[in-house]
Amino acid sequence: MTYLLLAVAAVGHVVFWAAIVNRLHGLGIVRRWMNVATIACAVAMAGMPLAVVGGFWLQARYDVQLAAMVGWVYAYCCAAFGVFALLHRAWVTLHPERRGVVASNHTARVDLRKYERGRLTAPGISSLLACIPGNQVLDLYVHERRISLPRMPAGRELRIVHLTDLHMSGRIAKEYFVEMVAAVNALEPDLVLLTGDLVERDECMDWVPDTLGSLRATAGVYYVLGNHDLRVDHRRLVEKLDDLGLIHVGGTWREVIVRDTPLVIAGNELPWFGPEPNPAELPPRDASGLPLRVLLVHGPDRFAWACRHEFDLILAGHNHGGQVRLPLLGAILAPSLSGTRYASGAFCRGNSVLHVSRGTGSLVPFRWNCPPEIALLVLGAAK
Questions:
Q1: Residues 355/361/364/370 CA torsion (nearest 10 deg)
Q2: How many domains is the chain partitioned into structurally?
Q3: Order of strands across the sheet that contains 247-248
Q4: For residue 288, which of 189, 168, 187, 154 has the smallest C-alpha distance?
Q5: pLDDT tens digits for 96-124?
Q6: Cα 382 vs. chain centroid, distance in angstroms?
Q7: Is pLDDT of 283 > 90?
Q8: pTM of the full predicted structure?
Q9: Domain boundary among 94, 114, 133
Q10: Where among 61, 94, 127 does a domain terminate?
Q11: What distance in Å separates the CA atoms of residue 41 and residue 170, rounded to the nearest whole number?
Q12: Cα dihedral 11→12→18→21 (10° resolution)
């Protein structure tokens, strides 16, 4: 029984400190202070078990009862949190907002076999990580998901490609993103919508014309920025993308007609960039509920705001699907005020549907049980 308690406590300990890190990263804190807070949590995650073991050793060696008592209190608290985390994960998995959103899901893999895996990653650590068995960082998938929107007119259909979190930094080679763009264009989408963390190193700005600048969609390519776009000259990035024909909607909105269906495409880049778009300025809906409202955000923490202002479709990324997903527990790390609840997937509240993509890149070139994705969303009417 003691070993079971300690095992559950170990799970609770990891999940507890990860939950703190997740929520801190959802606050939009200045990067240097965020790094300090993350390091402090990492030290606590590594140090607390050592302190508990030290307390037990002091009891056994010197009969220091208080040290062991503190250790047991921490272990019981962690065990209780571990049980709560497992129950909460089950509740989130079975929550009604996950049901009935995706009518079908077809998956295809982008063929990158003409490249050696080492050629698609930077020399050194990135290449070594890419060779680890089970690492899916270069296993790019296209997921075609049919999603029902409550206000979508019957008999109409829209094809939207959702891309996010490319993290062009040099850790993954330019050729990977060129192939990604080719796969997107082959889908012949009506719209391509990007939700931030596009470029995070200035030297990769020169990749933009051959990658993002080559995206094609009949009704245009729209985007917002993410927190990692702050690591480059983001004003220059916006100018470069605008010159290539991509449309920045951060803090504003555009009206467009796609296949005879009027849409409003807006962008909310908070908490990293402001201001948010003013919902009072959006075009009013007609008697049929049109125009549909589409919101681009980087992180899913704007979901509640979008629901209050009656957006029909919200697209987000930021969480990378957790990047590493464990059996039973799933994602552990997701930098969001909601923790891992919206790590990836489709969710519905009332008339609002949120789609969170796993993204096509990564901060660290390692993914396990969570491959990168291109999301093709085929939007239709609710049945």
A1: 50
A2: 2
A3: 102-109, 141-149, 373-381, 158-163, 191-195, 221-224, 247-248
A4: 154
A5: 898 878 888 899 999 898 888 778 999 88
A6: 26
A7: yes
A8: 0.93
A9: 94
A10: 94
A11: 28
A12: -160
